[in-house]
Design brief:
The complex is a heterodimer of chains A (465) and B (103). With 465 residues, chain A is α/β, with parallel strands linked by helices. Chain A is built from 18 helices and eight strands. Classes of the chains: A alpha/beta (465), B mainly alpha (103).
Chain lengths: 465, 103
């Protein structure tokens, strides 16, 4: 057994190692070392917790057993999961953190004496409030992440589910959570505690169902943030520094990611959270549409254009992930490079279903990361580029965002694809994208539409190169 | 007058938010997915609470109402810790620089 002071110092060390783990992610070279720091930090935290226990009951055996069971499941998932399933994996992991927080809070509520929080029915007021916050946020994280998981996995429709009075209902529930916490503190009845958890589960559910598929990057980041705050709430309850530091780190990390994603769509956080975006206000743009000429081509034309270009910029989007076209895409780029064509990739911040989604897929297909550029880095290059190859992206290339103040996506930062000499747009049909608006790019003179599945078209182009 | 230990914990919490803020802004956007999976893994340090909770029982009754929740939390957190770190490792191993020898 080690002293409480020494224990606190070890928890501080793991906290610092976690900070270094995040710090390592500032560049791919240092990131692997960062991950190692994270693992060491976790090992220290778990080991010293074992050392702090003075009476080794036979329960200890079960702790190790359950640790190994969970660990094997986790390791199995980590090795088996395909990279395209990363968004739902992360959502699923968030739900586990949330549920673990709820379970620890329940345990602390039932046996407060184990954690030195007073006795059952007579828990210290501050601990009770912290515990309630941890449990409520954890429960919201859990059910919210489950919905996000189902939507990302395609087990539930990705379109927003809205009903009248939705916002008022959510508001009423939030108020009832506060009232329940108040009564819980007043008489410490377990009924209030259980109702609090049940209602929080409901909130998470109601919060995520109105949010559509393409807003998922914001949702995942937000749930990431929540899982951090839940951990911090439990950290306060258990008076544990490692948990408090980690919770704060994760909480602010998720909040920053949400902010970056919202900025990438030029929408406020509340606009996203209130949901229901897309699919509803098509009437706005319908007027300007109607029978405009579209040029369409085949793989042969596309191959010819790209072979004779001196520079090509690839613009991938969610459609590339759906079609699993990243490997074919890299092969196409390889043969272009053999022909002396300069190729780079342009990634919009909200391309895909989670922050950095496209980068991971391209990395999986062995695309070197120094050929992949962010919006600000590459946007000026479109003007000097011969061919832009848009594969699976739509709204993020729509020039309307710059020209039409009436458009729902007006002001959203977009890739200046239309400035390149010619645009090859791989898409299955002329249907509008997530925002429910027509893409002006389809009708430009320098655009050649390639109507096909992203993977199939790319493979056909390779044959013609 | 003595300062409530809560205030110390609150100070740690708030300073950590600031540390997190500056550290995360310096994360390169291409690594945002690994960032999410690694934050996932580290937030599972909640397992320390689960371990304490699960040892609430006595030698005679290892599984009581409170320790069962502890054991369940251990399984969930362990899935996350192993899954989170390993999948991050797997992703980071894929980020490669352009090979110099290739034309």
């Amino acid at each position: 057994m080690i002293s409480a002071n020494l224990l606190a110092i070890f928890y501080l060390i793991s906290g610092i190692l976690f900070i270094l783990a995040l710090r390592g992610l500032s560049s791919p070279e240092t990131s692997r070392q960062g991950n190692l720091f994270g693992i060491i930090g976790m090992a220290i935290a778990v080991t010293v917790t074992f050392l702090s226990i003075d009476n080794f009951s036979s329960g200890f055996f079960y702790v190790i057993l359950f640790l190994l069971i969970g660990g094997s499941i986790g390791a199995f998932i980590a090795f088996k999961i395909p990279m395209t399933a990363m968004p739902e994996l992360v959502a699923g992991f968030h739900s586990l953190v949330g549920l673990a927080a709820v379970f620890v809070a329940i345990s602390a509520f039932i046996s407060p004496e184990v954690f030195n929080l007073g006795t059952s029915g007579n828990i210290k007021l501050a601990s009770l409030i912290e515990m309630s916050i941890g449990a409520a946020v954890g429960a919201i994280t859990f059910s919210g992440s489950i919905i996000a998981f189902l939507k990302l996995r395609g087990l539930m429709s990705g379109s927003p589910i809205t009903f009248p009075g939705q916002h008022i209902l959510n508001l009423l529930i939030l108020i009832s959570i506060i009232i329940l916490t108040y009564f819980l503190c007043l008489n410490q009845s377990s009924n209030f505690f259980w109702s609090l958890i049940a209602i929080s589960f409901l909130v998470g559910f109601l919060l995520i169902i109105p949010i559509g598929g393409a807003d998922m990057p914001v949702v995942i980041s937000m749930l990431n943030s929540y899982s951090g705050w839940a951990a911090a709430g439990i950290g306060f309850t258990l008076e544990n520094t490692a948990l408090i530091i980690t919770g704060a780190l994760v909480g602010s990390s998720g909040a920053i990611l949400s902010y970056i994603m919202c900025k990438g769509m030029n929408r406020s956080f509340f606009n996203v959270i209130l949901g229901g975006f897309g699919g509803t206000d098509q009437t706005l743009s319908k007027t300007s549409k109607e029978q405009k000429p579209v040029k369409s081509g085949n793989a042969d034309d596309a191959a010819f254009l790209m072979k004779n270009a001196s520079s090509v910029i690839i613009v991938p989007g969610y459609g590339m992930a759906v079609a699993q076209a990243q490997h074919a895409l890299r092969e196409m780029v390889d043969s272009l490079k053999k022909n002396g064509v300069k190729v780079s990739y342009a990634i919009h911040p909200v391309a895909g279903r989670m922050p950095g989604h496209m980068n991971v897929l391209l990395a999986e297909a062995n695309v070197p990361y120094d050929e992949v550029f962010e919006l600000e880095e590459i946007n000026n290059d479109f003007a000097n580029c011969d061919v832009a190859y848009v594969i699976g992206a739509n709204d993020v290339t729509n020039p309307v965002a710059k020209t039409d103040p009436q458009s729902p996506i007006y002001g959203m930062p977009v890739l200046d694809v239309e400035k390149s000499k010619s645009v090859l747009f791989v898409k299955r049909s002329l249907s509008p994208g997530y925002a429910g608006i027509d893409n002006d790019l389809f009708y430009r003179d320098n655009t050649l539409m390639l109507f096909a599945d992203a993977k199939k078209m790319t493979e056909d182009i390779i044959k013609n190169l | 007058m003595e300062i409530d230990p809560f205030i110390f914990r609150l100070s740690i919490f708030i300073l950590s938010i600031f540390v997190g803020y500056y550290v995360v802004w310096s994360v390169t956007p291409s690594l945002h997915t690994p960032l999410m999976s690694v934050t996932n893994a580290i937030s599972s340090v909640i397992i320390v609470g689960a371990i304490i909770a699960s040892l609430a029982g006595t030698n005679l009754s290892v599984f009581n109402q409170s320790s069962i929740f502890g054991f369940l939390a251990i399984v969930l957190a362990a899935i996350n810790i192993f899954g989170g770190f390993l999948v991050t490792q797997r992703m980071l191993a894929m980020y490669k620089k352009k090979k110099k020898d290739k034309k």
